Amino acid sequence: MKKICLIVLMGLxxxxxxxxNSSAVQLGKIVAVVNGKPITMYDLQRAAVxxxxxxxxxxxxxxxxxxxxxxxxxxxxxxxQQEAKRLKITVSKSEVDKRIAEIMKSSxxxxxxxxxxxxxxxxxxxELRKNIERQLLGQRVLGVEVGRRxxxxxxxxxKYYNEHKDTLYDRSGLHMGIIIYDxxxxxATIARQLRSGELSFAEACAKYSIHPxxxxxxxxxxxxxxxxxxxxxxxLMAMKPGTVSDIFLIKDARKNDFKAQVYLFRPGGGDYxxxxxxxxxxxxMEILRAPKSKDRFEDYSSQLKKKAVIxxxx
Length: 314
What we know:
Elements: H1 2-13, H2 22-27, E1 30-34, E2 37-40, H3 41-55, H4 60-86, H5 93-107, H6 111-120, H7 125-145, H8 154-164, E3 175-180, H9 187-196, H10 201-208, E4 219-222, H11 230-237, E5 248-251, E6 257-265, H12 277-307, E7 310-312
Antiparallel strand pairs: 1-2, 1-7, 3-4, 3-6, 5-6
Helix pairs in contact: 3-4, 4-7, 5-7, 8-12
């Protein structure tokens, strides 16, 4: 394992370029085979570098822990992609195009600006397209295999509504503002100023955000609730419209962590109407389904791994 850690750290220092010496042979070494599909040391190292950089890992114990975690995620990703093929689930080119267009629209970037932002993150458009295709395939597989195992009962809906009816607002037409803090910015101090009203969200974005929407007050547009990941959906659902979230961590395209806050609001202001039980039921179902889906996902992941032929050589 020491030799492997040394190779990984060398690659980290060389920004994942393949060295023209004996290490190149080691980078081609197969570290795992998943149902016949190999994962090389180069594949693993490339996937792990952002996490290694974030953790500033330099000792073999930390490197080993991170590498094994990343490898486990890579194995699961392969299994999910193989399930997509078995279930004949596909993603069309137009669907990937549409998703990229949505990202550009929410970021309010032109094509040239978008590609420039990708380049800063070390990504090409082709790599982004491949990542989006894999994500969409994974979401569909999980929607089929996990979604059908997740049931919310009428009794659970009644209980949730009675306990939270004073916080269930009409969320149609709401926008989300986001500030992703420059690493040098005093995020905790700014967050306090936002809470006290000393600083507006738009002012904070203009001064301290590195997100492309910073010059537009951080406004990413109308919230598309069905496209949010579980973490962001739960965060926004727990917020009262017109408020700013606490600081949380968000990852960029290379999985580096940045401090961030979001602002949930209705353009032009106006009253925030509470929902009746009937109106709130779809929202409650989504809220209750999220933690159940997480449990079902873990069960499903375990089942996939048990059925698979996995040879780990790390």
